[in-house]
Model the fold of this input.
Amino acid sequence: MTSGELIRDARRRHGLSQRRLALRSGASQAWISRLERGEVSPSVESLDRLLLVMGESVCLGTERVAGDEDDRTWVEAHRARPMAERLERAFDAAAFAGDLHGTAKSR
Done:
């Protein structure tokens, strides 16, 4: 289920129009419409605010995902790579993580 579907379903359960939800939440009706159509993706804070004005809340959880360190085939292939390639991959991963961190900070 997308965040837009989640909001639309909650809004309909509570018998609210997009306009009424917009008034309650301080968002625009156009933005809520775009959200419900999947054209925009809300932040967790925006999603929580929209649900909160309907008497609901966001419940997030985590679970462990099997990583590469659990995959024997990957570990063996990684260890067989030359050290220079392993380092290059590590630097690329670090740069990617830095880009993600910078993007998250700018929001």
Notes: The CA atoms of residues 17 and 41 lie 20 Å apart. Residues 68-106 form one domain. The chain has two domains: 3-52, 68-106. Helices lie at 3-13, 18-25, 29-36, 44-52, 72-80, 83-106.
